[in-house]
Every structure is written in C-alpha cells, then in structure tokens.
Amino acid sequence: MATAAQALTVREFIDQRPMSRFQIWTVAVCTFVLVLDGFDAQLINYTAPPMAETMHIPVNRFGPIFSASLIGLMLASMATGPIADRWGRKWPVIASVCSFAAFSLATAHVTGFSELWLLRFAAGLGLGGAMPNVVALASEYVPRRLLPILVPIVFVGMPLGGTTAGLASAAIIRHGGWQSMYYIGGALPLVISFFLIALLPESIQFLAEKGEAAPSIRKILARISRETPEPDFETISSSRARGRQGVPVVRLFTEGRTAGTILLWVPYFMNLLLIYFTGSWLPALLRGEGMTLAAASTATAFISFGGMFGCLAEGFLIKRGGPGGVLLLQYALAGLFLALLAEMSVPFYVMLVFTFTAGFMIIGAQGGLNALTASFYPTSIRSTGLGWALGVGRVGSIVGPLVGGVFLTSFHWKPSQMLLFGTFVAGLACVSIFAATFIRSSAAVYSRESSLDRVES
Fold it and tell me: Whole-angstrom Cα distance, residue 407 to residue 105?
C-alpha cells in the first residue's frame, strides 16, 4: 500500500476513494460558513424598510447602502483569492468570518446614513473574502466525479442563509426591532469562528503543491483513508503545478484560458446583477404596494428558498443536460417568471410560487457557474479564478441596486417596470451563454464534456 500511495498525487488519491466522513464533515463546515455569509449579506434587504423609518431616510435613497457592502464584496473577492493561493485557504476564511461578524454587530448601533454606508462597506470586505476561499477549499476535498454535484450543494449555504434572514426578520423585527437581527448576525459567526480555528482543515492540495508540511499532509490523508497506516503516506505534489509560477491573476489568461475566463465572467456579471437587483428592491417594492413588512420579507425570502433547491438540483441537471443547455434554460425561465411576478395583483400564494421559481433558476445558475469555475482552474490559481469571477460578478451586484435607485428616484418607475428590467437582464445572460457556443476556443466551458470532468490538480 505504501508503494501505491507514493505513486499517486493528492488529487489522484482523493479521486480513487469514496467520500470519507472527514471529507463530508469538511464540506459541511464550508457550507455552514456560507450560511452565515448569506445571512449577513441579505440582512440589509430585509431591514432597510424599518431602518428607513427609524432614521427618517426615504427608502428609495437606500441604493448606495445596498451597494456599499457589494463594493466591499467585490474588492475582497479579488484581493483574497491571490492571498489564499499563496498562503492557504483556512486563515483567510476565518479572518473573513470574524470581520463581517464584528461589523454586523456594530451596525446594530448605527444612527445615520454615512455611518451605515461605511459599516456595510466594511462588512462587505469580510463577506467577500469568505465565499471564493470556502468554495475552493471544499472543491479540493471532493473527488472530481462528484465536483459538479457537491460544489453547487456547498453554495446552498448562501440562499439558505438568505432564507433564514428573511423568515427571521419577518418574525423578530416586529418584536425586537431591526437592531436584533444585526446582533444575531454578528454574534453567531463570531462564536463559530472559534470552532473554525479547531475544525476547519487547510486545503490538502494547497499543502501538497507548496511541498511543505509533510506531517500535516500525512495526517490529513490518514483521516481521509483510515485503512492505510499514517507512516505509509508520502507527501507528493504535482510537479507540473510547481513548474507553473507567476502572478495568479495573469495566469487566468494563459495556457488557453483567456476566452474561457471572459465567457465565465459575463454570466457572473449578469447573474449577480439579477440576484441583487431583485433581492435588494423587492421588499421595498412590495411594501410600497401596501404589503405588510412580514409578507414582503416572506415573499422575498422565497427567492432564496427556491435558490436552495436550485443549487441542490444544479449538479444533477448539469451532469444530464450539459452546462450550456441547463444555464440557457434557467435564464430563459428566470426571465419568464420575473415577467409574471411583475403582475403584482396576483394572490399572495401565487406570488410565492413565482418568487420561489425565479430563485430556483437564478440562484441555481449561480451554483452551476461556481462549479464550472472551480473545475476550470487548477489548484494553484483556483481561489484567484473564483475570486475574480465573483469580483466581476460583484460589479453587476453593485450596478443592480444603484440602477434600481435611479429608476425609482429619477424615472419614477413602477414595481412592474422594475421587475421587467430583471427580465431584460436574464435575456442578456441567455445571449452570453448562447454566444459562447460560437466561440470555438471556449465552447468547451459550457459543453457536456466540459472541464467539470477534467479538473487539474
């Protein structure tokens, strides 16, 4: 067994075995981190109406507030990816969790517009550092045959956190005030961060590629495969990866990855614009149409609720239908249900069906894009690839709330017109996926035989 172990790379060792309890536990911890991330990221959407009333700020001025945390998310996504690819995934994740926990607690004491903007920006820096590194770390403990299924499942944490925030807001704000939500959103991740220090492992592929910490690698391998004695393991890194040095961001555009990188970025931009445009303004739009705060929060929470199921189903759909066809259909249906949602006079339960289905399509597509990106880039630049794709997407998420604010204040758009704009964005995402099939050098990114099945270690 020792000889066999010495002949394998870490990636091959993981690929040739079923998922162990240790690997499942690691993926579960990563998913829970994204639950906390999603909870804190969505809080402002649900607390904006009561905050506006308390601070005597018109809710249509909250566009910059919605975008503040998203600017922080964008900067952190782009900055922490290269840091994690050089220094590891674990500690950037822990630092990010502690950061957004602290600034969420501080938000509970905010009294003015400028102070709120600054605190949401600072919280965004923490939120943006968590996702790309968590997804990269989880993907490096998953056999490549399960990657397209398990990476979207990890992303379930984001909509699950958003759903929890919406349902909790509907129940808690009327009794404890909006401040209570930020106490919860700050205290819980702060407590969990201490457990992450003890329980969250470093990426074993990262350790192997750096050629360091051989005892740590042997211990992790022993936990993955307990039938093999620890002393029989050897530290084996990929010689190919060691030979590929350079600035991680530049490498996103080398070795034939340029077209694929760009055609991953375009739908990221459109998708996150759509998610945050809809999620940021829908509670306020519904509230303006006379719906109670609890009902508006519940209806918006169903977008995240549908997204949970979308992420769970995404991997299976992609395996059967191929990334391109599945994403194309999802964006088309997302546009259709946003158009149906624009008909505000429908009964409340019908509106819940529409928001659930729209969330299933839009957030499910985001899980699929994350799986594609995690598999498209090798370990040595995976956090950078994910971070920059998310960073470019965050530009869309910043534009979405700001554009919504302009539509409301300058053009006096009605809620139905706002939602029809979401249909237009979904159509642009369809066009970007469709265009990829005509660019030969990048068509493989969205084909059935995509890089999902060719993860490079």
Answer: 32
